[in-house]
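Name: DUF2087 domain-containing protein
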Amino acid sequence: MTSHPSSPPSVADLFAADGRLKAIPRRAARREALLAHLAATLFETGRDYREPEVNEALKGVHEDFPALRRYLVTGGFLSRTKDGAAYRRQQRTGTPGGAIPAVA
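Structure predicted for DUF2087 domain-containing protein:
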């Protein structure tokens, strides 16, 4: 058996042969896995993106790019400036260097 219970769900089956997303998953775990995949494959760490750039990248995946953009921001995969002019990919796995934050 090759799958492990703790491994994240695969997102490959969410995509059609042409590379476009069939549907945005309703189940939270599946959507989280998809968003992690999109953030990692579409956006570079440490680079700012203007909203039209984010939209263009997401349009290539699914026609409901505003929903994907919103999920990426609310899920913590992308941060957005208060004026909405710039987006940046976020690291969601712990803190930089793998350090555990101190608890007071």
